[in-house]
Design brief:
The protein is mainly β. It is built from three helices and 13 strands. Strand 6 and strand 7 form a beta hairpin. The N and C termini lie far apart (34 Å).
């Protein structure tokens, strides 16, 4: 609608659950190894939302998570309005053991207005940006070159989703009265290094 993709979370019964939403998952359809990825997104607002623009290692089916690696270009939870974060997760650095590498920043009107979220990924470094400002910067030299520290040396696939609730989005409950809520996607662009 209005030139943007709308991903909606709704209160409706489906598949034995009380809510519906969407995840655009490119696994098996598209991958990138090194390059630049960006999306122009307008996030919804409500306690309970958890919009994300992220990537997983394409080998997740054979090695599992977190060994496959995860790059969170942008995540936000409605309980902390307008605070967006970027993180990486690996075998040695992940949220289940409290060692993930992450950075958060508050930006004016992340909820409701379009902002540009981007990833620059090279063989030796990962840098994420919000509206051209560095959000998170990590290097192989800082974290270690072994696979458990730096699994970012093969293909990853991008994901866009709007979760409702969950262990982070719903950590202080959800506000069902806000539903439906919408994450708007103006575009996603990928520039792969050749």
């Amino acid at each position: 609608a209005d030139g943007a993709l709308h991903i909606r979370a709704k209160k409706e019964a489906y598949g034995g659950k009380n809510y519906t939403s969407a995840r655009l998952n490119t696994n098996g359809k598209f991958t990138i190894t090194y390059g630049y990825v960006e999306a122009r997104l307008a996030l919804p607002s409500s306690q309970g939302i958890w919009p994300a623009f992220w990537m997983l290692g394409a080998n997740i089916g054979s090695v599992g998570w977190p060994s496959c690696g995860e790059i969170d270009i942008m995540e936000e939870v409605g309980v902390v309005p307008n605070e967006v974060s970027s993180s990486i997760h690996t075998q040695d650095y992940n949220h289940t053991i409290g060692t993930q590498k992450t950075h958060a920043m508050t930006i004016e009107q992340a909820e409701g207005e379009f902002h540009l979220y981007a990833l620059e990924w090279t063989e030796d470094a990962i840098t994420t940006y919000v509206d051209g400002k560095v959000q998170l910067a990590v290097t192989k030299q800082q974290l270690g070159a072994g696979h458990n520290q730096w699994p970012f040396h093969y293909a990853f696939y991008p994901i866009l989703n709007l979760a409702w609730g969950g262990d982070w989005g719903g950590m202080n409950g959800v506000d069902e009265s806000a539903l439906p809520v919408t994450m708007k996607v103006d575009y996603v662009r990928v520039f792969q290094k050749k």
